[in-house]
Amino acid sequence: MPDIKITPLGAGQDVGRSCLLLSMGGKNIMLDCGMHMGYNDERRFPDFSYIVPDGPITSHIDCVIISHFHLDKCRPDLLISESTYATTIRDSKRCRERDFLKKVHECVAKGGKVLIPVFALGRAQELCILLETYWDRMNLKYPIYFALGLTEKANTYYKMFITWTNQKIRKTFVHRNMFDFKHIKPFDKAYIDSPGSMVVFATPGMLHAGLSLQIFKKWAPNENNMVIMPGYCVQGTVGNKILGGAKKVEFENRQVVEVKMSVEYMSFSAHADAKGIMQLIQNCEPKNVMLVHGEAEKMQFLRTKIREEFSIETYMPANGETCIISTPVKIPVDASVSLLKAETRIYNAQPPDPKRRRLIHGVLVMKDNRIMLQNLNEALKEVGINRHVMRFTSKVKMDDPSPKLRTGETLLTLLREKLSGWTVTMQENCTITIETVEIKIEEDEKDPKHKTLLITWTNQDEDIGAYILNTLQNMYFPYDIGEPVAGFEYHSIWTLHKAKRKGTQEEVSIFVYDIRNGSEAKCELAKGALKRLKTLRHPSILQYIDSLETDKMLYVATEFVEPLGTHITKLSTDGPQKDLYLAWGIFQITLGKLLDEAEYQKRIVPCVVKLFASTDRVTRSRLLQQLELFIAHLQPQVVNEQIFPQVAHGFLDTNATIREQTVKSIIHLAPRLNYNNLNVEVLRHFARLQARDDQGGIRTNTTVCLGKIAPHLHPQVRQRVLVSAFIRAMRDPFPPARVAGVLALAATQQYFLLSEVANRVLPALCSLTVDPEKTVRDPVFKTIRGFLGKLEKVSEDPTLRETMEHESNDTSASASDYGNNDWDNENWGEMDTSQDPSSPMAGASANNGQLNASSALAEVRDGWDNEEWGSLEEDPGEDEEEQAQQQQQQMQLRQSPIRPHQQQLQQHQLNELAEPLAKLNSHNTSPSKQATAILSTNLRPKDLSTAKSISTTPTPFMNCNNISPIDKSPEHNNLTNNANWNSDSWADGEFEPIDETSIGNPKLEEARRKREERKLQRQRELEARRAQRVSGPMKLGAKKL
């Protein structure tokens, strides 16, 4: 067995300087390190020479344990404090004891029973002593019991070790043992149902199990009884529930106990309250505080108070969380006497000047675990090394026609004025000396007026040498700075000045940054830009020449430049506009309008196509905003083959702004799209957005855009889509979307068959006459009157029916009875967009409107939801035979005339051929943080092909910097919709042109059957891939619900 060595280093046979050294297991542990108050020299400390004769003892001691110290001298790096009562300030202990005894006495006096749940040690004995003393003093006869088991054993040990208790209890031991209770007896479970008053101490203290919970269940229904909780109860326990005011408590076996007994909370906990914790922190003065053992909300409150009152960093880590606290490292360094004398001699024994730093140059020497700063010569002499000096020399050019001596005298005068606190002298050879820095003047042999200043200093005088060099550079900056260039200061932190080089009069540009007026962040930005400009060398980048930094200004000299706006203005006044164009990135789009068509097609169109292929969202956003500026110059083939496939990715983007701008762009692209892109691809994406997009504004924009591009749709497709799409919009819980559906119906009514008006449109409109939003009801009544007027005309003159319905097959736009001029100019922005379910402000009115509209339209049959619109995840490759058949059908459809009497037959045939596939997957994105509003335009529906779309986001300058790159192939996730309006989705499928020649044709029937089988097979493969993606990683840009 290893020995334990104990050696007193102090207080061995005297009082004071207590210090013991314990050596065990190869470790040295020091207990305390006191001082003797009777001495003021080294005798006041313990004798550490026993540990080590000379030098520090830190490396020989493994641990120091302090048993007593002055709290205000502690100042630890970290104080770890419990925070059970982080928000509680308790009364004095005497007041709590008095209230406790009073309540117990009152309860037993009126015949009630008192239950006191306690833990076995500490608090139970304290309360027992209180009641024992009170019962003895008041001569009370009510029985007091404590639970058998651990409490009884604990009382036995308290009796045995009473000498270890406090002084007050030990005094009573002279007469009797305080823990030998006369009035308190062991408790038997048979006493639970005994009549009469009694007081019972039972464990555990939180009523979560055991005897205390059994007694509580029996006594709780009696209002004369009382339970006193003397300590803290964890959340979820019965004690916590009844302290929270619960009148009924349900247990695991579904037993419900009604709580009629009185519940009192009297804290006798040993935990410190908030006031005690704050006093401890104030006295200890720690650098950091860590809170443990408390509830998160209460700890957060105490943490805030500590930071506010003491400005101390406070931590409250969760389980498993690590806090890293930095502690300052202090290294004591001794200074040699010769070094201090030398420094005093250099500064003429002057007292330290707080405005001027004094640097002490020396060598750190470590010897015998002690670090000393010595004079350089002294240290080199000790180690036997010769001294090597490194000198730095910098050049400053100046122009002065005066002789060399006269230039030196002038420079000496200027330096003495600038450096009034330094000793500046000049030698016979025109060498100026400032402390240890030398300045020499050299003349150019060819031209004596060009002179060069050579500033030289040693490495140990780096600070003073750099300061003098900077001063001379400021005095001889070789440029004459002119007036600032107007307008440039509004676009940069720099001010641009025209300047000329001294001597040669060469034109340069000077960028000036005022350090005094800028923030620290801007100053770092300016210095970083200068540093980067110095390292860049490229013909297309501004050429750096020189720079100068002072304590007030930062100057950067570059080749002569002028702002773009100034350059264009100058050129527009000097030469013809046809010579104005710049091949400069995206600005070609803005400046391209100055080119003729041939040059535009050659220079601008390739740039536009390349930019649309970019995956950067900022670029895409700007292109979509400026689409109307250059769409007229793009050929239909370029739009369909190169532009539209890139734009279509925006329909599936996770960013709501990109999706909205993509919808708006279709208004400009529609006149140039071919049959497949417009009537199949665009409508397929519109169907998904209107049914599944979580942004109410985007759903509204989709409806408005569909109404505006209606003249460009094929008549057969238009008849199938418009009514069903607008009726779906009228079911939307977002009020502006319902308004858009109503006004779109009114603006495009010339495309509807009268049978659709009577059987589908008017019933759907009538259900909205009771809409909770007045902004919805008003256009509904106007639209109903418009449709009724049309039906009345046909009723009075049936010959008009064929003419009106013939217009539904016409591809040209025509006027309607209502909505011709203002359907998209309604004051949409004043609607309450907080009713958008995607908005946090969604209210009850939206829900009511949703239920009313949905229930009223439940019986309206619309083929909008039952048509096939193509799969968003179809394989890119198609069978050649299928493609040829589709092209043949399209050609036959376009060449064959469509007669009015064929419309209903073709609609019926198309509905029979279309078989629904699986639901479309929605590309779900995070909802917008702000409610969107619908903006109107000034264009009228009579020119829908050139009309502008409405906007739901601030334009044209949004925060594009927060848009992340586009994911061109986002994964689609299933979206569970809560609203009834989109409980039905547009089924997958394709719009196939149907002609009479396809009916009864065996080859086409067989091709159609094979095509449907392939689609079903692809759908099953897609479902398998989706199931696999649910358990695997998802692609960037998709979000899984």
Structure overview:
The chain is α/β, with parallel strands linked by helices and 1041 residues long. Among the domains are: 4-86 and 272-325, 4-Layer Sandwich (Metallo-beta-lactamase, Chain A), CATH 3.60.15; 93-265, Rossmann fold; 334-349 and 361-383, no CATH class; 391-475, 2-Layer Sandwich (TATA-Binding Protein), CATH 3.30.310; 479-566, Phosphorylase Kinase, domain 1 (2-Layer Sandwich); 605-808, Leucine-rich Repeat Variant, CATH 1.25.10.10. The chain is 39% helix and 13% strand. It has 31 helices and 28 strands. The strands form 7 sheets. The protein has a 6-stranded parallel β-sheet, with helices on both faces. The chain has a 5-stranded antiparallel β-sheet with strand order 19-23-22-21-20, with helices on one face. A 5-stranded antiparallel β-sheet has the order 24-25-26-28-27. The model is unreliable at 575-589, 811-999 and 1033-1041 (pLDDT under 50).
